[in-house]
Automatic annotation (TrEMBL):
Quaternary structure and partners: Homodimer.
Binding site for L-histidine: E81, G82, T83, R113, Q127, E131, R258, Y262, Y263
Root EC class: ligase
PANTHER family tied to this protein: HISTIDINE--TRNA LIGASE, MITOCHONDRIAL-RELATED, HISTIDYL-TRNA SYNTHETASE
Lineage: Bacteria, Bacillati, Bacillota, Bacilli, Bacillales
Segments forming domain Aminoacyl-transfer RNA synthetases class-II family profile: 1-320
Protein name: Histidine--tRNA ligase
Molecular function via GO: ATP binding; catalytic activity, acting on a protein; histidine-tRNA ligase activity; transferase activity
Catalytic activity line of the entry: tRNA(His) + L-histidine + ATP = L-histidyl-tRNA(His) + AMP + diphosphate + H(+)
Length: 422
């Protein structure tokens, strides 16, 4: 019997996990600077929350959710995205009553979607996202977009493209919806089964279909931009003005629609334009969702946010051949030549670790030479060898592995010496 990770999931091994932590560190730091503290919600929620909050006609709800019945007969679903949970929490904790609006929060954690697994598409993936709920100031839209861009820039990516669009308000979307139905209806037989269902449910989604993407009718479809009413157009102009002021380049793509039902006004995606990135070039998706909080039982509370996976960010780094600056972090390896030395090594190791000096010793009963090799493999910055004479003198040579230099340091001075040099 042999076990493997479930399809679409992966183990992140040491050596690789440092990259994740580095990226997560960038995200956490930016959230601190932009004031988006973390809101942690459960990994599963009632199924109905996602049906309402993501939307019944979306791929996510139709075919990607991990839904199960618990022993109490409740239908629960592993979260496929973050916005619905954050909105639920906003309503449940009456955050709409907070004096400071919008309420700005972030999340970082695994999401689950039953997808056809391929490069950049997993069944469990780690999503970072932010939400700002309770304001429809277009400056917030620009802030959220800027924050998303900053994550990629801080990680070292250069080949980025920001695509934005306006989905308008309800009036705009209704008028556009009618036009789309009229456009596609006579030819709907040419489209996939999903699109045939989408025609009445949510024809906007046809534009986002991955199966029919090449059908010229999609290119020729009535564009939402032409249906924008004055208010929506003015809002979009404001967002663009703020982006200009922030010096953020963007491309307006009238065909950009987001997969989730609840989006309106601003929609955006950040793509990688790096050569060799592969088929899936979207790194981040986000937008405004002014009706969502009402949809799940709260008062009118306009929101905006984005979601991005660490998996795709790492792929983009690979495509651009950007190496994250990950420090070698083993400060010291202590080699012990015999049992007495081992006892002292254990004692010293503990006293160094208490002071924050990353220290390793041998637990495999290896001879001195093999221990030295291990220290080398582990890339230790310093090595101390302990034997009879060191114990006698109560001092040891500290060897700088990079330069080969050695210096004799009394045991009682080792902590200070290493703190000063590591
Ligand atoms: P796609 O069109 O690629 O399926 P989506 O519209 O389903 O994306 P969103 O729901 O908007 O994506 O999710 C936002 C971000 O989350 C994506 O831009 C991507 O970075 C990430 N993401 C979504 N699904 C996956 C997945 N299965 N594996 C890895 N990352 C994912
Ligand atoms: Mg998807």
């Amino acid at each position: 019997m042999s076990f493997k990770v479930p399809r679409g999931t992966q183990d992140i091994l040491p050596g690789e996990s440092e990259k994740w932590q580095k990226i997560e560190g960038i995200m956490r730091h930016l959230c601190h600077v932009y004031r988006y503290p973390e809101l942690r919600t459960p990994m599963f929620e009632s199924t109905e929350l996602f049906q309402r909050g993501v939307g019944d006609s979306t791929d996510i709800v139709q075919k990607e959710m991990y839904t199960f019945e618990d022993r109490g007969g409740r239908s629960l679903t592993l979260r496929p995205e973050g916005t619905a949970s954050i909105s639920r929490s906003y309503v449940e904790h009456k955050m709409y009553g907070y004096a400071d609006q919008p309420v700005k929060v972030s999340y970082l954690g695994p999401m689950f979607r039953y997808e056809r697994s391929q490069k950049g598409r997993y069944r469990q993936f780690v999503q970072f996202g932010v939400e700002a709920i309770g304001s429809k100031d277009p400056a917030v839209d620009a802030e959220v977009i800027e924050l998303a861009m900053r994550v990629y820039q801080e990680a070292g990516l250069k080949h980025l493209k920001l695509v934005i669009n306006s989905l308008g308000d309800k009036e705009v979307r209704d008028a556009h919806r009618d036009a789309l139905i009229a456009h596609f209806e006579p030819h709907i037989g040419e489209f996939c089964a999903d699109c045939q269902k989408r025609l009445q449910q949510n024809p906007l989604r046809i534009l986002d279909c991955k199966v029919d993407a090449a059908n010229p009718l999609i290119e020729q479809a009535p564009q939402l931009t032409n249906y924008l009413n004055e208010e929506s157009a003015a809002y979009f102009d404001q967002v663009k003005k703020y982006l200009d002021a922030l010096g953020i380049d963007y491309v307006v793509d009238p065909n950009l629609v987001r997969g989730l039902d609840y989006y309106n006004h601003t929609a955006f995606e950040i793509m990688s334009t790096a050569e060799g990135f592969g088929a899936i070039t979207t790194l981040c998706g986000g937008g405004r969702y002014n009706g969502l909080v009402e949809e799940i039982g709260g008062p009118e509370s306009p929101g905006i946010g984005f979601g991005m996976s660490i998996e795709r960010l790492l792929l983009a780094l690979e495509a651009e051949e950007v190496a994250l600056n990950i420090e070698n972090d083993l400060d010291l390896f202590i080699v012990a030549m015999d049992e007495d030395a081992k006892l002292k090594a254990v004692e010293l190791t503990s006293s160094f670790r208490v002071k924050g000096i990353a220290t390793e010793i041998d637990y495999a009963g290896r001879k001195m030479k093999a221990q030295m090799k291990a220290a080398d493999r582990l890339n230790a910055k310093y090595v101390i060898v302990l034997g009879g004479s060191e114990l006698e003198e109560q001092a040891a040579n500290v060897k700088n592995m990079e330069t080969g230099d050695q210096e004799k340091v009394p045991f009682h001075d080792l902590v200070n010496y290493l703190l000063a040099h590591k």
